[in-house]
């Protein structure tokens, strides 16, 4: 049985998507695949058992039927944190290894999902990614997501910590304008340090977007229209806090945007509706007038009423679009295809002894 730990340089890098995509791909090859996420930062109670929300989702998609407690032996609750900081959480690794071997009993491959940062998250209680992977005897893949730049220093430090157990890295969400630098500078730099880049996943708007209906829920707002536009994909947002002429100049350059503006700015609201905004988010809990509502229904643009002020809504939107969880079936399928196209699957299988 082969174990593969999926780590990352920080949170929200794409670990869950990679774990799920690899499980599906290994299954296509006729391999029996298991999955667990030893440390869960998103605890959820299911039938009296604590598990992790991400692990439960992946378990459901794969139909594995594993118990929440086996999949996630260490759910990080508030009570757990208090005990850990007081030095009372005990030694956790034995419960992780026991669950791992139980789930791996009839499997060819075990995919192990990491939590947070591979090097640092969990250090306070002895379950950082390096220690967990080493205890399980698993190889490691690290995901690094482009955020203004790539974390090449971190990847070099991870190689030093993991040694030959680091099977390689995946560079995720890389914009087209940065691809030449990745190919000509970053990949050779990493290769000289013994770090294989197993795939470069390009930025894709579908993977960084959110359905308008989900956006309303996550913002704590409410939909005041009933159009089919609730399924519109929002990949960016624009704040309507300027005059109409300047707003038009910015708006025409954007696609799939939600426009955020005060509920009293009917001039900007009308421009957004006529320009094909993906959604209209009205702040300050100010209800739009009948002309705006009628127009929104006619053109299929959902109108979301939010209680907070424009600045607060924009900050929430920024966080949501960056860290949205993988739940939409369309995004799951699309993301799996992106990984399949970018990943050097043959090289990975060889490193895992599965070739």
UniProtKB/TrEMBL annotation:
Ranges where the DRTGG domain occurs: 214-319
InterPro entries registered for this protein in UniProt: DRTGG (IPR010766), P-loop_NTPase (IPR027417), Phos_Acetyltrans/Butyryltrans (IPR050500), Ser_kin/Pase_Hpr-like_N_sf (IPR028979)
Quaternary context: Homohexamer.
PANTHER family per the UniProt record, alphabetical: PHOSPHATE ACETYLTRANSFERASE (PTHR43356)
Name of protein: Phosphotransacetylase family protein
Organism: Desulfolutivibrio sulfodismutans
Taxonomic classification: Bacteria, Pseudomonadati, Thermodesulfobacteriota, Desulfovibrionia, Desulfovibrionales
């Amino acid at each position: 049985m082969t174990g593969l730990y999926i780590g990352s340089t920080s949170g929200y890098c794409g670990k869950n998507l990679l774990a799920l995509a690899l499980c599906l791909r290994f299954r296509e090859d006729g391999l029996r695949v298991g999955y667990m996420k030893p440390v869960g930062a998103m605890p959820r109670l299911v039938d009296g058992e604590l598990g992790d929300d991400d692990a439960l989702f992946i378990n459901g998609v794969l139909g594995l039927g594993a118990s929440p407690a086996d999949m996630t032996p260490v759910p990080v609750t508030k009570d757990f944190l208090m005990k850990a900081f007081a030095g009372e959480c005990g030694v956790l690794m034995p419960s992780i290894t026991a669950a791992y071997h139980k789930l791996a009993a009839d499997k060819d491959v075990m995919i192990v999902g990491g939590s947070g940062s591979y090097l640092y998250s969990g250090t306070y209680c002895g379950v950082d990614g390096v220690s967990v992977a080493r205890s399980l005897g698993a190889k490691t893949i690290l995901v690094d997501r482009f955020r203004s730049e790539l974390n090449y220093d971190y990847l070099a430090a991870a190689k030093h910590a993991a040694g030959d157990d680091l099977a390689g890295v995946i560079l995720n969400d890389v914009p087209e304008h940065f691809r030449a630098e990745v190919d000509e500078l970053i990949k050779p730099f990493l290769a000289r340090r013994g770090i294989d880049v197993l795939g470069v996943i390009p930025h894709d708007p579908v993977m960084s977007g959110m359905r308008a209906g989900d956006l309303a829920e996550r913002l704590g707002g409410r939909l005041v229209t009933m159009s089919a536009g609730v399924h519109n994909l929002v990949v960016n947002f624009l704040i309507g806090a300027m005059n109409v002429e300047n707003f038009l100049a910015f708006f025409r350059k954007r696609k799939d945007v939600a426009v955020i503006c005060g509920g009293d700015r009917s001039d900007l609201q009308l421009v957004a509706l006529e320009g094909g905004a993906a959604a209209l988010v009205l702040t300050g809990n100010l209800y739009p007038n009948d002309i705006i509502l009628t127009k929104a229904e006619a053109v299929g643009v959902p109108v979301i009423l939010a209680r907070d002020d424009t600045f607060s809504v924009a900050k929430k939107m920024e966080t949501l679009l960056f860290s949205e969880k993988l739940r939409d079936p369309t995004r799951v399928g699309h993301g799996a295809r992106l990984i399949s196209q970018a990943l050097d699957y043959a090289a990975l299988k060889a490193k895992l002894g599965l070739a």
